[in-house]
Amino acid sequence: MSKRKNKTAKEVRGKPRKRRRARCAAPPSGGCPGLVRTLSRVAAHFGVAERTAANWRARGMPGKPGAYDLAAIAAWRDAQVAGRAASSEAGSELAKVEVELRRLKLAREQGGLVSVAVAARLFRRHIHEAKAQLAQLPDEVLAELADAVPRDRLAELAARIRGRIDGACRSLADLLAAEELAISPATEE
Q1: Does residue 154 contact residue 141 with C-beta atoms inside 8 Å?
Q2: What is the C-alpha separation between 73 and 182, in angstroms, rounded?
Q3: Are residues 84 and 29 in the same domain?
Q4: 43 CB-near residues (< 8 Å, 6+ apart)
Q5: Are 36 and 80 part of one and the same domain?
Q6: pLDDT at position 12, please?
Q7: Which structural domain range is residue 31 located in?
Q8: pLDDT tens profile 50-61
Q9: Strands 68-69 and 35-36: what pairing?
Q10: So what's the pLDDT on residue 132?
Q11: What mean pLDDT value characterizes the chain?
């Protein structure tokens, strides 16, 4: 039995392959060295981290592994900057919103803001207290009118006034509950 030895790729071809070096085309007049093969060379040329170059690639930077045209990439970057400048008005509005958001987060961390649930609890307590005070109003007003209005009419007026007070307090409580539901998912974490 003869032992067969697996031949390496080098032995099959007969001679070893030379490794190609990353070739760069002759620099254009702008000084851009032309083509490079790796993202690390792209990053080095533009003075950014390799991760930044990878992010550019994910966002549509021209080229493919092994063939990155630095002039095309420079033009792409210029277009990106121009696009950002064109939307600077929207960007400045976004920046204002982000500043306001940071201000609100800081205020919340420092205890300057309360949660929707706490505010709702306070409002409910105030509604309840106001209702208790308003419930005494019909008796006080009707005591003043006792001599001028028949007794059976006084009872009817007291019931109507209490009904209106109860209805108004219920409306406030319902409005508060609706507002709480509308606000809570957007602001509470």
Answers
A1: no
A2: 47
A3: yes
A4: 49, 50, 52, 53
A5: yes
A6: 52
A7: 20-88
A8: 999 999 999 999
A9: antiparallel
A10: 86
A11: 77
